[in-house]
Every structure is written in structure tokens, then in C-alpha cells.
Amino acid sequence: MAAKIISGVEVARQIREEIKAEVEQLKAKYNKVPGLVTILVGENPASVSYVTGKQKTAKELGFYSVQDDQPADITEEQLLALIDKYNKDDSINGILVQLPLPKHINETKVLYAIDPDKDVDAFHPVNVGRLVIGEGIFLPCTPAGIQELLVRGGVETSGAHVVVVGRSNIVGKPIANIMLQKAKGANSTVTVVHTGTKDVGHYTRMADILIVAAGRPKYVTADMVKEGAAVIDVGVNRIGMTPEGKAKLAGDVDFDNVKEKASLITPVPGGVGPMTITMLMKNTLAAFKNSLGIK
Ligand code: NAP
Question: What is the Cα Rg of the chain in Å?
């Protein structure tokens, strides 16, 4: 059986259309739009490119968007004061501090200073706790994107055995917690495997839905996958350069062979990756609606 290949580019485009339409409706009713500030410290080229992408998407969706670039020598105190300013600013619903920060600044302290209701990356411990008890206003962006791909790909999650490879705080643990919830698009039986697991293949072969976030190129081979499983490949690994001088990417799954066995699979690039910025926008919209008391 050849798998259905789910395009994250296409799903992300659909979600952005929906967000844009909702922003227009809310603007007509409340005369307000969601506000997102990105705070970039220094000029790390990768960070500049990420922030530019987020700003561009926010503007396309009709958001009020503020790009607050700060010099690399900003002090921790000044940065905390800046966050406090945006915490108190009613026109801002989402505060995004682009990581990494320079070494003289304590990243944890900075991220924890963001008002949890404006923490659209959803990394604040309050939001981690809300997610675990099933009361999240928004979910961390990459895991939320994975869930959207499953739901919009028509995968039945309720009663499915989900196996997650990886237990990081940004992908593995949150997606495991999301799929565990007694909720639509979840209600799964969840197993998490990691480097301490004795026989990873024993568990992955039992998965109806296999989510791989290990950061190991082509780690999951066809013999580790059950016939007909839905496979979500989160990995992004640089494995060389293309003749045009661009980075050559591979996922954590041996795509060419696994696609012959799975029922659904996401490619790398073009699968989970394109969902992340879109889910950030969805979170900013959710924070905006939360501030207006809309469920
Ligand atoms: P991470 O922090 O390095 O965590 C990797 C996890 O995988 C760890 O829990 C590790 O186990 C586990 N692991 C590694 N090798 C393994 C093996 N051989 N068998 C079983 N488990 C293994 O990585 P991450 O931040 O979660 O990211 C994972 C991948 O997703 C990376 O390739 C990253 O680039 C990609 N990613 C993509 C997006 C996106 O597309 N938007 C976003 C985030 C991450 P231990 O805990 O035991 O060490």
C-alpha cells in the first residue's frame, strides 16, 4: 500500500485562510485585531529569518504586528522591563521572544516573565500545566501542528495507539499530553519511547499513529512500522548540500521505504515544518479571543 502524503504547506494555507476570515469578522464586530510582538535580540541570521517570516505572516492575516529588535548588548533587566511593557499593553495579545538569547541573559527567567495569557509559544510552566490538565488556551506550536495534520488528514485518533519517539519539552512530551486528552482529535492510548527504551522497534511496530521527533536522520525504517500506520515525521536533519548550495534535509523517517507501508505520511521538508508559524498565528488569535472573553 502506498501512503497518502499529507502536505503541511497545503494544510497550513487552509488554516491561514480560516484565521484571516475570522480576524475580519472579529474586526467588524469589535473594531480590534490580534496583536503580536516579536522581540529579537541581536542579529543571528537564522533568528532574523524566523522573525521576518512570523512578521510577514502576521501582517498577511490582518494582525497588528510589532517587530521590536534590540541590540545584542541589551541587559537582562532592560529585556525584562520590555516584556513587562508588552504584558501591560492591551493592543498586544502575543509576545514572542526569539531564541536563542545572548549568553549574558537567562532565557528561562525571560520566558517565565511573559504573561501566560500572552505566551503564544506556550512554553511557560503555567501553560504546560494547563495543557496537562486539559485547560490549555493554546498549545505549543509544533505539537499543535501535528494534531492538526492528523485531524485534517482524516486519521481517527480516538482509541488509536499513538507511539511518540522522543520526550523533549518542545515536541515529545507536549504531543504525548495532547493525544492523551479526553478530547476531539485525541483520546488516544499513548506510549513514549526514548534513548532509555530497551527495544524501540517493539513499541513503534504497535503504533496506529507513529510520531517521530528524535533528531536522527532516517532512524525509523520500514521494519519498525506497522502496515497501515499513520506516520508523522517531525525531524529536520541537515544531511549535506544540494548542487545549488542549499541545505539538504532529511526527516527522522526513511520516507521512501516507509511510505510503501504506511497509510499516511508527512514529508520532510513540507510536512510538520510549515505548520509551526501558522499555529503561532492561531495561538495569537486564541489569546485575542480569550482577552475578549470569547470561548
Ligand atoms: P531533542 O530535544 O534533541 O529530543 C530528541 C528526543 O529523541 C530525546 O527525548 C531523545 O531521547 C530521543 N531520541 C534520540 N535518539 C533516539 C533514539 N535513537 N531512540 C529513541 N529515542 C531517541 O529534539 P527535539 O527538539 O524534540 O526535536 C526533534 C526533531 O524535530 C529534530 O530533528 C528537530 O529539528 C525537529 N523539530 C522540528 C520542528 C518543526 O518542524 N517545526 C520543531 C521542533 C523540532 P533522550 O531524552 O533519552 O535523550
Answer: 20
Examine the pLDDT at 1 and tell me if it is beyond 80. Answer: no
The residues, ordered by sequence, that sit 6+ positions from 39 with a Cβ below 8 Å of its Cβ are 68, 70, 79, 82, 83, 86, 95, 96, 97, 98
| pTM confidence score | 0.96
Atom 6 in ligand 1: residue holding the nearest Cα: 166
Task: Give residue-wise pLDDT tens across range 35-65.
Answer: 999 999 999 999 999 999 999 999 999 999 9
Is 121 designated active site? yes
Query: Cβ(110)–Cβ(97) under 8 Å?
Result: yes
For the question of residue 54 being annotated catalytic, the response is yes
In this structure, CATH architecture of domain 141-273: 3-Layer(aba) Sandwich (3.40)
Nearest CA to ligand 1 atom 30: 235
Q: What is the per-residue pLDDT for 146?
A: 98
What CATH class is the domain 31-117? alpha beta
Q: Measured in angstroms, how far is the CA atom of residue 212 from the centroid of ligand 1? A: 8
From the alpha carbon of 219, which atom of ligand 1 is closest?
18
Q: Domain residue spans in the chain?
A: 31-117, 141-273
Query: What does the block give as the cell for 187?
Result: 483520546
Residues contacting 88, CB < 8 A, separation 6+: none
Closest CA to ligand 1's atom 20: 194
Best CA proximity match to 16, nearest among 280, 288, 295 = 280
Q: What are phi and psi of 10, to 5 degrees?
A: -70, -45
Are the C-beta atoms of 45 and 14 separated by less than 8 Å?
A: no
